[in-house]
Amino acid sequence: MARFLSTVYSGIRGSVGGLTYLANQYHQLIVRARTAPVQPNTPLQTAMKTAFSGAQAQWLALTDAQRANWDLYAIQTPYSGPLGNYFVPGRIIATAILSLRNFLNGVYAAGLPVANIAPGLGGWLNLTNVHEVPPGLPGTGIGVSFGTPSGLQSTMVYYEISPAFMPTRLRYKGPWNTGQSDHTAAIPPSTTGILSIVNLIEGMIYFVRIRAIFTTSPYKISREAIIRCTAVTIP
Asked: Which residue segments constitute the domains of the chain, with CATH numbers given?
């Protein structure tokens, strides 16, 4: 399904029939033939499919009252898109949150408790002041600093890194280097956390994709953030 503004398509995203509408840094409106996604069935992809199936089963096991609470959370938690903010049903946002929790538990033994209660307060987990810093470890690498929310819940950050690029590279959206990435870090509440990734190439550009989740229920997740970093050497 496609979403568009005005009858002459001043903005449109999505697919209709065999056509997909999108945009890039060169054109505001692009249409191309719709293509089937590649399914290489890598170990991480298989793990995410398993986590998603588990989240769907967990949703079906909820009571009507629990599902209603997820619907209430969903209408207070807007997604951002090229056509403005929009909202998804409680089932969708619950599946997204529980899938990430299941994935981190299955792949990284994160130890996040299995509880499917909806947050009582709307909105995303908010990582503040996300920016590049020197790595906090000796060697050649990159660092990303961020602030965690106040309260009693710690935050687990899940991050991936891109391949190395020349300094002229300004943006990147994937694919991600799973040989050096897919790490997690647990950060206490109301603190500044630093992700440090070393054994990189000095002077090269790397992009880090970050997403966070609370370490205890009720779970919230953050919006995805992609940070551009330059690898430096720390003695």
From this structure: 2-33 (no CATH), 43-108 (no CATH), 128-234 (2.60.40.10)
